From TrEMBL:
Residue sites binding heme per the record: 433
A GO molecular-function annotation: iron ion binding
Taxonomic classification: Eukaryota, Fungi, Dikarya, Ascomycota, Pezizomycotina
Residue ranges of the TM segments: 6-25
Recorded family membership: Belongs to the cytochrome P450 family.
Pfam family, one: p450
Protein name (record): Cytochrome P450
Cofactors: heme
Length: 517
């Protein structure tokens, strides 16, 4: 038997549910992009995103095959755009304000700066642009400063790979873990100079402890759910405060003192300015190691590709200087990579196409009609998931959702890489990631240094691609759910060689060829 209380409760739930349902549909205009069938009004999207991460959006696209659809969250409308034609129109429209949470709001939110600093930086950004992005553009987008930063990073990489990959070991190691460590040392060392706070293993460990908390900073009450991450963040804050107090930045890459001085002149206190390095760190460290991991995985797991990459890398060995007693010195100029190693670059491009999960975000400035038929309401957020484009069979053919190492060997494949309507791992137009050349240079160098010196074999005997269900929605590259245990051995054929890895002057123009925003 039901008690009265049960009945009242059931009635209450029915009324709330029905009310939400009616409200949802009555506030959804027929001219807006279609709303996929709803089970729990307003809560489907947050639950779906929590459960499936970026796959939530990809699965909806697969299931309903809509060029654009609406998601309703509490207090927020999202329009998710899938069709290339609509993306083209949106990129051409200037009245859709660009909303870049990853560079400003996102940075402010998770770096832990106080309200005052946040307000100041927001208003400064509104009048003079985001000083961080402006500086990264100035120093890392192209030209001699990009070469300087890359050169320092390559020097550090060569040394750290020798130690980490070359360490004689009996046991297996995790491939991602070892890459992550080397790349972190190289990138942060090149940017922060000899006093790099991350050279301290405790600060490096604190960064590792902080990263899993980022999702909580975005979606929940961090004080309750991310204590460990917040404590780790405080340790990093302290390390950077000390770094600036003792003048470590005077020996850093020019970008760091410039941003720091700008912040100080604007009245931001030293400890607050130090906190902002969290944003620089995240920009530098979030996706490079993961990309290098997937690239190495795809190369090493295909013997034919591996051999081809190594044959092309042999072309970079420009000088075989005098033989010392019993060893030969080989100088490898990594700045020739982009010119002489098309297989490796194509593998990187296919890796980015296949894996990248970057979501471009824009905010609708005022009510507008897209392509003459879709009403987009003011203040809604437009999401363009890169995966929807990269896995679109209409663009990439029936095999769009599989990794194909030959895909980009054709001129047709190469052509698709030239347009951000078919290939957009770094975003598009003015919000394209300004650090991508630096990060790509260093990542490719790491893979080259490793492939030339070492053989990597999966400990389990067979390469198996890990799943990525648990990857974070905020990250442009999804991390594998589990690392791959590998065994690393020096390549026998080159054991007697002394390698010297350099970044010469052959990088040519990395300048951006086109702007499509
Ligand atoms: C890789 O992609 C870039 C576009 O980001 C393109 O310019 C380049 O030609 C591609 N290279 C190869 C070998 O696929
Ligand atoms: C936008 O359109 C909606 C629905 O058509 C309307 O209720 C709202 O007032 C409009 N807002 C503006 C700012 O025009």
């Amino acid at each position: 038997m039901f008690s009265i209380l049960d009945l009242v409760f059931v009635a209450f739930v029915a009324v709330v549910y029905g009310g939400a349902y009616v409200f949802l549909y009555s506030t959804q205009s027929k001219r807006e992009p279609r709303l996929p069938p709803t089970v729990i009004p307003y809560l489907d999207p947050p639950i779906g995103i929590a459960k499936e991460k970026v796959n939530y959006l990809v699965n909806l696209r697969m299931k309903y095959k809509l060029p654009i659809f609406t998601l309703r969250m509490p207090f927020q409308r999202l329009y998710v755009v899938n069709a290339a034609e609509l993306i083209r129109i949106i990129q051409a429209k200037t009245n859709l304000g660009t909303f870049v949470p990853n560079l400003l709001d996102f940075g402010l939110l998770f770096s832990g700066v106080n309200k005052e600093t946040q307000e100041f930086l927001r208003s400064a950004a509104a009048t003079q642009g985001n000083s961080f992005t402006v500086s990264v553009h100035k120093f890392l987008a192209q030209g001699p400063t990009l070469q300087v930063a890359t050169r320092t990073a390559v020097d550090r990489l060569a040394a750290s790979v020798r130690n980490s990959f070359g360490l004689p070991r009996i046991n297996q190691v995790g491939l991602l873990e070892i890459i992550r460590h080397d790349l972190m040392r190289a990138l942060t060392g090149a940017i922060y100079g000899p006093e790099n706070p991350y050279d301290d293993p405790e600060v490096e460990a604190s960064w590792q402890a902080f990263v899993p908390g980022i999702t909580h900073l975005l979606y929940s009450v961090p004080r309750l759910t991310a204590r460990k991450a917040l404590r780790a963040r405080s340790r990093i804050h302290i390390a950077f405060t000390k770094y600036f107090e003792t003048g470590g930045h005077h020996q850093a890459f020019a970008m760091i003192p410039e941003i720091f001085e700008w912040n100080r002149r604007s009245g931001i206190s030293l400890p607050e300015a130090a906190k902002l390095e969290m944003a620089t760190s995240l920009a530098m460290l979030s996706s490079g190691a993961i990309t290098a991991f997937w690239l190495l995985f795809h190369i090493c797991s295909n013997p034919e590709v591996l051999e081809q990459c190594r044959a092309e890398l042999a072309e970079l060995v420009s000088t075989k200087t005098e033989s010392t007693a019993d060893a030969q010195v080989k100088v490898v100029d990594l700045s020739l990579l982009k010119k002489k190693c098309p297989t490796m670059i194509a593998m990187l491009n296919e890796t980015l196409r296949y894996h990248s999960t970057l979501i471009n975000i824009k905010k609708v400035d005022h009510n507008t009609t897209l392509a003459g038929q879709y009403l987009l309401k003011k203040d809604a957020i437009i999401m363009i998931p890169g995966t929807a484009v990269h896995h679109d069979p209409e663009i990439w053919g029936p095999s769009a959702t599989t990794f194909d190492h030959r895909r980009l060997a054709t001129s047709e494949g190469q052509k698709k890489l030239q347009s951000t309507l078919s290939f957009r791992p770094f975003g598009a137009g003015s919000t394209m990631c300004p650090g991508r050349h630096f990060s790509t240079n260093v990542m490719l160098s790491l893979v080259a240094i490793v492939l030339l010196q070492f053989d990597i074999k999966p400990a389990e005997g067979r390469w198996v691609m890990p799943t990525k269900w648990k990857a974070d929605l905020w990250n442009a590259m999804p991390k594998p759910d589990a690392d791959i245990p590998v065994r690393i051995n020096p390549r026998e054929s080159v054991q007697a060689v002394h390698w010297k890895f350099v970044w010469g002057d052959n990088a040519g123009q990395d300048a951006d060829a086109k702007q499509e925003d």
